[in-house]
Amino acid sequence: MDVHNVDLTISAVEEKQYPKTNYPEIALVGRSNVGKSSLTNTLINRKSLAHTSGQPGKTQTLNFYNVEDQLFFVDVPGYGYAKASKASREKWGKMIETYLSQREQLRGVITLVDGRHAPSDDDISMREWLKYYEIDILTVATKMDKIVPGKWNKQESLIRKTLSMSQDDALVLFSSVSKKGKDQVWDWIEGRL
Ligand code: GTP
Ligand code: MG
């Protein structure tokens, strides 16, 4: 998609604030600091519309980005942020679960994992949970610019194995620095609109 017009429609904390439109929605989930906001910015050709930070826990609300009045990207707060209080983790869990399991406009979820490491237990649980709800998943391995190309295949195998993915399950190796993988991510999204 050729993207020019994007705006942050709402940072929502509860259901009644979600947009009232019927545009398809694509959500981005993954642990804190994995690069969800950076991926959002890359997809919409903007440097910093979605706020990014070296400090985990930057995104705390469900942020709905209206893309060309055609779809919404929903930037979801990261999980696995160790310093978050138990109360805020519970609140997070409830908000995300409600959104992901009940939102009719949701067409698919992009799950991000850090391309440098094996996926965490939280990454595995999130994937199992999404599969239980029969949600369409694209897995994106981020920060590939930090790994030499000679190791990309090995990392891909490790991620597939740890997440019990079959060869048919979609996986894109991505970097918000080099923009590697951007077109493949867009292809997957457009296949869901
Ligand atoms: P929360 O909002 O805290 O859940 O984090 P997030 O998943 O939105 O991560 P964010 O996009 O804010 O990125 C976290 C940090 O990783 C920032 O310092 C980014 O610049 C960096 N980062 C994200 N993606 C990449 C990438 O592909 N390559 C490199 N080198 N750095 C990246
Ligand atoms: Mg963020």
TrEMBL record:
HAMAP family: GTPase_EngB (MF_00321)
Pfam families: MMR_HSR1
Gene Ontology cellular component list: cytosol
GO BP: division septum assembly
Organism, scientific name: Lentilactobacillus curieae
Protein name: Probable GTP-binding protein EngB
Keyword set, alphabetical order: Cell cycle, Cell division, GTP-binding, Magnesium, Metal-binding, Nucleotide-binding, Septation
PROSITE patterns xrefs: G_ENGB
Stored PANTHER family: ENGB-TYPE G DOMAIN-CONTAINING PROTEIN, MSS1/TRME-RELATED GTP-BINDING PROTEIN
Keyword Signal in record: no
GO molecular function: GTP binding; metal ion binding
Family, as annotated: Belongs to the TRAFAC class TrmE-Era-EngA-EngB-Septin-like GTPase superfamily. EngB GTPase family.
Domain EngB-type G stretches: 22-193
Cofactor(s) named in the record: Mg(2+)
Known function: Necessary for normal cell division and for the maintenance of normal septation.
Superkingdom of origin organism: Bacteria
The keyword 4Fe-4S appears for this protein: no
